[in-house]
Amino acid sequence: MNIIKCKNCGQELEITxxxxxxxxxxxxxxxxxxxxxxxxxxxKKADATARTEMETVVKRLQQDAAGEKERNKKLQEQLLxxxxxxxxxxxxxxxxxxxxxxxxxxxxxKIREETRKKxxxxxxxxxxxxxxxxxxxxRVNEELRRKLEQGSQQTQGEVLELELEELLGKEFPEDKVTxxxxxxxxxDVNQTVIDKLGRECGSILWESKNAQWSDGxxxxxxxDQRAAKAQLSVLVVANPxxxxxxxxxxxxxxxxxxxxxxxxxxxxxxxxIHLHQEKLSNVGKxxxxxxxxxxxxxxxxxxRIEAVVEAFNNLQLDIEKEKxxxxxxxxxxxxxxxxxxxxxxxxxxxxxxxTGRELQxxxxxxxxxxxxxxxxx
Length: 377
Description:
Blueprint: E1 3-5, E2 12-14, H1 15-171, E3 176-179, E4 189-194, E5 200-209, H2 216-228, E6 232-237, E7 247-250, E8 253-256, H3 261-281, H4 286-296, H5 299-355, H6 370-376
Parallel strand pairs: 5-6, 6-8
Antiparallel strand pairs: 1-2, 3-4, 4-5, 7-8
Helix pairs in contact: 3-5
């Protein structure tokens, strides 16, 4: 058998089959070439048609775009025109509104000005009326204040007089402390000093003042002292002069404050009793009386009085401090003692309750019975 290999496909064939195969191959090649040419023709025609259609579509799109651009341009022009008209209308409206507001403001300003003028006039009249009432009230208030001050000073002066009389009477119950009645010429209080034997040793004239210091008080009190024939005179002031810090002897008158009345009274009273005893022991000895009189007017006597008053004042302050300290101490101790007693009673009662009153009784912790009361009596 004659076999050959196909040069195209490499398949081994017989010669007859190879020839047949070659013929078929040639035919297939011819058909492929023809088919390819037809495809090329169809492709060329399709490309031409597509190009033509594409150009047509592009031209149409370009025309549509140009028309759309033209329409957009017209619309933009119309929109711009409409916007201008709207802006113009809004501007006219705003101008009209502004003009109306100006008119309203002008009318309002006019009305406000008229109202202000009317209100100012009314206020001016009311202010004038108020000023007049205020001036009248101030005048009345000033008169009342002056009367009240006069009454207050008078009342305070009377209170100071009563306090002075009560203080002297309390501190010196053996003396005769008498009030000089209102309307009578003289000072406020007259203190007749009486010693332990009941003998009158002299008198001290007391005057109290609750106003601003006046030098005329000294002259008046000296005249009252001469009229009352008192050995000493004391002026008690609420507002002493700047030179007086505690007490002093001015122009024949002792001047002091309310706080130092008692110490000064003790010192003056002591000297009056001492001078009276000296006088009794030296009756008929005028020269000694003159010495005593000079002694009373001497600086030594004044210094001794001041020393006695200062010592008495310091002693009184110490006594007051000790009294307050012991009062606090006794109150604290009494409170603690009360706690001890209460707790003791509480323990005793609780034990009686627990033991059923079998606990031996403690009489000091029990309520007293009738027999116990009799025994206590």
